[in-house]
Structure prediction request, 220 residues.
Amino acid sequence: MFPQPDLLFPLILTAKTALVAIVCLSILGVALSYLLATRHNLLTATLDFIITLPLVFPPIGTGFILLVLLGRNGLFGKLGLHPHLIFTPLAVYLAAVVAGLPLVIKPLQSAMQRDLFKLAEASRTLGKNELQTFVLVIMPSLIRPLSAGLMLATARSLGEVGITLIIGGNLAGRTNTISLEIYNAVLDADFHRASILCAILGVLSLGIFVLLRKLNHSAY
Prediction:
């Protein structure tokens, strides 16, 4: 039972955001890591820079860039594309994926470039086709770095404030996550509420961590 009824929505939104982030980061992480590890040209170098940017650029700045691109009067809007993402739960999901993506891709990319392609070549030499090589050799070899990356990325997405604040809007009952509620509580000097929210976020983080650890160990 929650000390305050209005904690339920941020908790549900945060849990949904974590689950959406895990699914999206798993798919995008494997696909983009494979692309970056196998193709070396100006396009992939630019893509690598864009993906890595949230690691070295302030979250507020990253959020502003997304706002300029996706806002009603942003670049996509001027091109006739109206994604209707800003200040919606979809913007919260996007912020989590953008913040966590480099933490998933970098371990995967490193694993692929180190020795994965040697194993894949050996598989082809033994007569396995591309699909068999991917399913039987590449994917099992990526489970450990993927799990490690997802743990880091999920933790990062749960604590995300800067990007979410800019493109999500911190709207009560609409886009306010637990992390944003902690931010709001601190601004209001309501440290008791902030402590409760931190405890809830800690339990949620621990649950996701345990789940990913079990998935990691079950693969071996």
Summary: The chain is about 80% helix and 0% strand. The CA atoms of residues 127 and 178 lie 51 Å apart. The mean pLDDT is 84.
